[in-house]
Amino acid sequence: MKVNTMAEMLANGQTPEVLFWVGCAGSFDQRAQKITKAFATILNKVGVNYAILGKEEACTGDPARRAGNEFLFQMMAYQNIQILNGYGIKKIITTCPHCFNTFKNEYPELGGNYEVIHHTSFLQQLIDEGKIKLKEGGEFKGKKIVYHDSCYLGRSNNIYEAPRKVLEALDAELVEMKRCKSNGLCCGAGGAQMFKEDEPGNKRINTERTDEALETGATFIASACPFCNTMMTDGVKNREKENEVAVLDIAEMIAASME
Amino acid sequence: MPILQQILFVALFIVATWLFTKKAGEIKRNIFLGRPEDRSDNPSKRWKNVLLLALGQKKMFKNPLVAFLHLIIYGGFIIINIEVLELLLDGLLGTHRLFLPLLGNYYAFIINVFESLAVLVTLVCVVFLTRRNIIKLKRFANKDLEGWPKSDANYILITEIVLMSLFLLMNATDQAIQLKGSEHYKTTGSLFFSSFISPYFSNIPLSSLVVIERICWWLHIIGIFTFLNYLPYSKHLHIVLAFPNAYYSRLNAIGQMSNMPSVQNEVLYAMQPELAPTNANPPEKFGAKDVFDLSWKNLMDAYSCTECGRCTSACPANITGKLLSPRKIMMATRDRLEEVGMNINQNKAFVDDGKSLIQNYIGIEELRACTTCNACVEECPVSISPLDIIMELRRALIMEDSNAPQEWNSTFSNIENNFAPWKFAPDDRANWINEMPNN
User: Cα-flanking dihedrals φ and ψ of residue B186, to 5°?
Assistant: First the structure.
């Protein structure tokens, strides 16, 4: 399956409809790469006219800004906006809620105005339009799935329903943790915590959240953020449940269930 | 004798109002020690927030039972103030139950509404005291509240019970006097709740009853004046500030961090020097080390906090035993601001005391524990953003003091040089393409 970059498309005189912003985790982290490949496979199968930036993509600056390094954030924002505006990008899809939030809420006042869609909303749209057809009796049919809300998708951007609607399309039994939607508990990765050790405490945040997910008795923990995915996967391993419970991104679940 | 009482009342009234106005002025001055920030846009949306969040207490209804109980105290408090208006006018004019002839038969009805509220408020205050002191709800037994804050909460609840009891006792003695007949004490009609108490006073001589009634009246009004002046020193100030705080709350998506145009321009001028004005001065300060560097809204947030701890109960860092407590961030900001205010009162202008909000009041370990998940912001019933303050302090730590954990320094250098938080070659960014199926 072919994945084009913006540069290649431009060279061929083509203009893609949307840019798939892969993000750093999706590009480099081995676990998150699987999510990227799953989502790209869906885009290819559906026939979406898209491209990626490839080597021209760079960190949005989210972790730097939230650690307190505004200079670095502004530098990254400047470079990214130059490239995005240079290609005349109008519409961006991303599999990372942190990139999503930065594009949607923080780049506009810096001169970067785009229509930004998180992949869960896009998947919901494709399912609603009948462009994604799911297998009868797929892998997840009748299975218990618990969805973990990403803070940057949920509380920050009020996207609670799209990921749940997509999961419902899998014909699975969707269960909720006590702390869900606007009361959802963070996985522990946000605010640049992903890149450093936890401060001293009596429990890791990802363990606290994973325990809550495991209590529901679900076989699958669905995530919509590569960082949440890592944190929950670590949590499940910590509790030695990796043979019984799988942590999957919603895109992976859909890719595995498509006809 | 009545004229003496009137003079005494007027004196009390003037002193209470003057003291309150003075302290309110100081609080206003303290709030505006903060950085200017324009929050005047979109008034219709802002008024909507006042209606929903402050008046309607929307966030409280996440827990409907507690919201209902709180609504009783709040409603009781506001409605009974109409009765306070009568007390004030009676005190000033030397009258007794001034509204009785004006309202006629409706008077008893209205006082009965107040009495019902007084009974309900008393009951709820007992429930709230029990939750705090006997059941010891986790967010109230938290170490944030050790010492004065814990007492403050109890004083408020006890004062409300005392005020409500005095009001009922006053009405009860009044009715006992009415039965014995006194020209000054006109017939009010039956007052439901206090009429249960008034029979206990039937054997007391009229002159003593009048003394008891007057004592209740005076204690009630003195209690109200005292409470008014206690407010500005207490967490109870939220009953006033919740309203402006809702009006001036952020309208943007809560995921949006405030921009720093000064840094934005610095970067722009570095990249495109031709755009730099000749007289461009580099920004003086980055982020906040002390209350002066926070915005006035951050400081109003601090005065609006009622220390309920919903933020801290929802904070992932706090839940897992880290030092960070969003409530403590707000309490520390108010404590420091009050200290700065006293410094100004004593010295006319602020004299450096060698202290700052960061380090002396809020530790680095606390700030480092935040995941920026916005749970605290989402929880707050009075539109406070502890996260805003945490982020401003973090900015100062990194940009003023270059104080970052080693791992973060590596992350920064990776982002800067490799365009990703990890040390991967930027050229490998799209290597995953080669692993796409059927490739």
Answer: -75, 160
Q: Are the folds of A6-123 and A133-257 the same?
A: yes
Considering chain B, tell me which residue range(s) the CATH 1.10.1060 domain(s) occupy: 262-418
Question: Is A16 at the interface with chain B, CB within 8 A?
Answer: no
DSSP string covering B165-181, please? HHHHHHHHHHHHHHHH-
Helices (H), A106-200: 119-128, 161-168
Model confidence, pTM: 0.95
- Confirm if A159 and A153 have CB atoms less than 8 A apart: yes
Question: Which residues of chain A are within 8 Å of residue B258 when distances are taken between CB atoms?
Answer: none
CATH topology assigned to domain A6-123: Rossmann fold (3.40.50)
Query: Under an 8 A CB cutoff, do B419 and A69 touch?
Result: no
Instruction: Classify burial at B286, counting beta carbons within 10 Å of its beta carbon; exposed 0-12, middle 13-18, buried 19 or more.
Output: buried
Fold of B262-418: Fumarate Reductase Iron-sulfur Protein; Chain B, domain 2 (1.10.1060)
- CATH architecture of the domain covering B2-31+63-247: Up-down Bundle (1.20)
Minimal-distance CA residue of chain B relative to A152: B255
CB A96 within 8 A of CB A26: yes
**pLDDT at site B24:** 97
Contact (CB, 8 A) for A42 and A255: yes
Q: Measuring CA to CA, which residue among B255, B252, B358 is closest to residue B297?
A: B252
pLDDT tens digits along A108-136: 999 999 999 999 999 999 999 999 999 98
Say whether A147 sits in a helix, a strand or coil: strand
Is CATH 3.40.50 correct for A133-257?
A: yes
What are the phi and psi torsion angles at A247 (to 5°)?
-100, 120
pLDDT tens sequence across B45-56: 999 999 999 999
SS3 content of chain B, % helix, strand, coil (to 5): 70, 0, 30
Kindly list the residues from chain B whose CB atom is less than 8 angstroms away from the CB atom of residue A36. Answer: 432
Residue A225, classed as helix, strand or coil, is coil
Query: What does the alpha-carbon distance between residue A206 and residue A236 come to, in Å, rounded to a whole number?
Result: 9
- Which CA distances in Å does A119 have to A38, A157, B412? 11, 14, 27
Task: Delimit the CATH 1.20.950 region(s) of chain B.
Answer: 2-31+63-247
CB nearest A186 (choices: B264, B268, B371): B371
* A 186-205: CB under 8 A from B: 186, 188-205
Under 8 Å between Cβ of A85 and A111: yes
State the residue for tokens 């998506």. Answer: B253
Give the residue among B358, B359, B378 at the shortest CA–CA distance from B315: B378
Please name the amino acid found at residue B353.
D
